[in-house]
Specification:
The chain is α/β, with parallel strands linked by helices and 325 residues long. It has three domains: 6-17 and 203-300, Cobalt-precorrin-4 Transmethylase, domain 1 (3-Layer(aba) Sandwich); 19-103, Rossmann fold, CATH 3.40.50; 105-189, Cobalt-precorrin-4 Transmethylase, domain 1 (3-Layer(aba) Sandwich). The protein is built from eleven helices and twelve strands. The strands form three sheets. A five-stranded parallel β-sheet has the order 10-9-11-1-12, sandwiched between helices. A four-stranded parallel β-sheet has the order 3-2-4-5. Helix 5 (132-138) links the parallel strand 6 (122-126) and strand 7 (146-149).
Length: 325
């Protein structure tokens, strides 16, 4: 029997679920327990196909727009990414029972933008066009109140009415390094621009990128576990590549491993996006253990103990919540 070659696996820590994702998933599960299936969820509650399929099996129905939801007394849940105010107003018109699972750190950005607007400032949002978090943030204010900037090049095209009366906010899941460059360019062109009291990129994004920066230069290859439509997961892949790892792949499941690419490794780094459950990391480690003699070490960049309470509608027991309807 041939001996398996050794493989040193470096696990990034922290990785996987953040507090906002834990809360969002629990919102759907608590609503299902309290009201029974179905419950409707506008947009994927978090960007992870494995998580979404699991919730669908329990009775969650995911829709892209309120118009897809029939007249119902079932709960309608808004995803962790947040929604424009027009969506809230549309739900109220149809008298839906709504539960808002928006991550509190996204809500913080919404409040900042609204405060700047009330103070008469024009607002620049650093983010990715079309991402639901960006759509939700821009949708907190009237059309034209927020201008989206995606790169340093975009800054030269900004034409504010009053360059001395600007503020900026950012998407919570951006690359730390890219955002730093964009903010530096904004500040250079508009020295009076007002930034967040505390940076908008969330703690989970920051910590996961820091761990990848430690591990990526030390390994022959890296796997980033998560879905391709997850912004924070895509940023982890980019960070690993920039940190010098020659082979970086983003995947959701072990069956996606291209074994020809991963032949002859001596070391492998693994991380997971903030919406990826740990079971998927374990699945990938087990797959490598079938071909290599795997030893696992953890490389930690930060300790996390953040907790977000559930929305008030779901803090009671499922029985009490159901009785209140």
């Amino acid at each position: 029997m041939s001996r398996k070659p050794p493989l040193r696996v470096l696990l990034c820590a922290p990785r996987g679920f953040c507090a906002g994702v834990v809360r969002a998933i629990e919102v759907v599960e608590k609503a299902l327990a309290a009201y029974g299936p179905p419950v409707y969820v506008r947009h994927e509650i978090v960007h992870n196909k494995y998580v979404i399929r699991g919730l669908e099996e329990k009775g969650a129905i995911f829709v892209d727009a309120l118009e897809e939801i029939p007249a119902t007394s079932a709960p309608v849940i808004f995803s962790a990414h947040g929604v424009p105010k027009l969506v809230l107003e549309g739900a109220a018109v149809r008298k839906f029972l709504t539960v808002d699972a928006t991550c509190p750190l996204v809500t913080k950005v919404h409040r900042e933008a609204h405060l700047h607007w009330k103070r008469g400032r024009e607002i620049v949002l650093v983010g990715h066009a079309g991402h639901p978090e960006v759509v939700g943030t821009m949708g907190q204010l009237p059309p034209g109140a927020v201008t989206l900037v995606q790169s340093v090049d975009d800054i030269s095209r900004l034409a504010p009415t009053d360059p001395k009366n600007l503020a900026y906010v950012t998407q919570t899941t951006l690359s730390i390094d890219d955002t730093r460059e964009i903010v530096a360019a904004l500040t250079a062109r508009f020295p009076a621009i007002v930034g967040p009291h505390k940076e908008d990129i969330c703690y989970a994004t920051t910590n996961r990128q820091a761990a990848v920066k430690r591990v990526a230069p030390l390994v022959d290859a890296m796997i980033v576990v998560g879905s391709t439509n997850s912004s924070n997961t895509q940023r982890l892949k980019e960070v690993a590549e920039r940190a010098g790892c020659r082979l970086v792949r983003l995947m959701l499941r072990a069956r996606e491993i291209d074994w020809q690419l991963f032949e002859g490794l001596a070391s492998l780094g693994i991380t997971a996006g903030a919406s990826a459950p740990e079971v998927l990391v374990e699945e990938i480690i087990e797959a490598f253990d079938g071909r290599y003699a795997v030893s696992v070490e953890t490389v930690s960049a930060a300790e996390e103990n953040v907790f977000f309470p559930l929305p008030k509608e779901l803090r009671a027991s499922p029985e009490a919540a159901a009785a209140a309807t």
